[in-house]
Amino acid sequence: MNPDAQRLTGVAHPARWLMPGVWLLLLGLAVWAMPLAEPALKWLAPDARQVIYQRAAFSTLLWRHALTVGVAAAVTVSVGIAAGIAVTRPWGRDFLPLVGQCASLGQTFPPVAVLALAVPALGFGTLPIIVALVLYGLLPVVRNTLAGLQGVDASVVSAARGMGMTGRQRLYRVELPLAAPVILAGVRTSITINIATAALGATVGASNLGDPIIAGIVNGNTAYIVQGAVIIALLALSVDSLFDAWQRQLVRR
């Protein structure tokens, strides 16, 4: 198959399908090997008594980080796709400007400001960062849901209507399957961005991979910052490559 045909059908070189496994393997190796990297990182913080977080601590922080992002993603995807579907229906088109502005609101406020406003109402811990991640990640999901549904060929929808399908059947059997790759691209963008943004939760008492970064900033320990940043970057690349493989599979179908 020539390269042009590969791009049209979503078929890629077999090596591309191996990338999710490669990034996940590197992530696991990084968590396991960080305590062994003390000689290499010691020069970044020669006066620090404890340069390296323990392996068990990193495993716990990684799990908590992934869980926080996962809960926020579940809420974001549910609300974002539902809102995008609603404003493409005849009864909801009048609310399109309002939904667009509400979804954009989270991007106009810095996540730190959202956390500062959420803490007095929700207290310290994981809940404020989940609220911030939901607001910050909503726009890509809503926009891509709109773009995907509006990009479905009208003749296909008309053909489904001519076959006697109800509005619900057309949505679930025709429109959403055709729009799925575009919607998934928005979900992918939202989650990948929020993996990095979730590190700010450490400033309000949410234990995650932001802990070593904040500790490094406070104590002037560059090695802590490097450790946290490397694990977060590998986690984001792993998730992004998994979504890339999933998206290509949807395009092929």
Automatic annotation (TrEMBL):
GO BP term (any one) = transmembrane transport
Spell out the Pfam families in the cross-references. Answer: BPD_transp_1
Q: How does it sit in the membrane?
A: Multi-pass membrane protein
Tell me the ranges covered by the ABC transmembrane type-1 domain, including all copies. Answer: 62-243
Q: Which UniProt keywords apply?
A: Membrane, Transmembrane, Transmembrane helix, Transport
* Localization per record: Cell membrane
Does the UniProt entry include the keyword Translocase? no
Q: Which domain of life is it from?
A: Bacteria
Q: Name one GO cellular component term.
A: plasma membrane
Q: What parts of the sequence cross the membrane?
A: 20-41, 62-87, 114-139, 178-204, 224-243
Recorded hits in InterPro entries, A to Z, give: ABC_transp_perm/SBD, MetI-like, MetI-like_sf
Question: Which family would the database say this protein is a member of?
Answer: Belongs to the binding-protein-dependent transport system permease family.
Q: Name it.
A: Osmoprotectant transport system permease protein
Q: Which organism is it from?
A: Vreelandella subglaciescola
Give the source lineage, highest ranks first. Answer: Bacteria, Pseudomonadati, Pseudomonadota, Gammaproteobacteria, Oceanospirillales
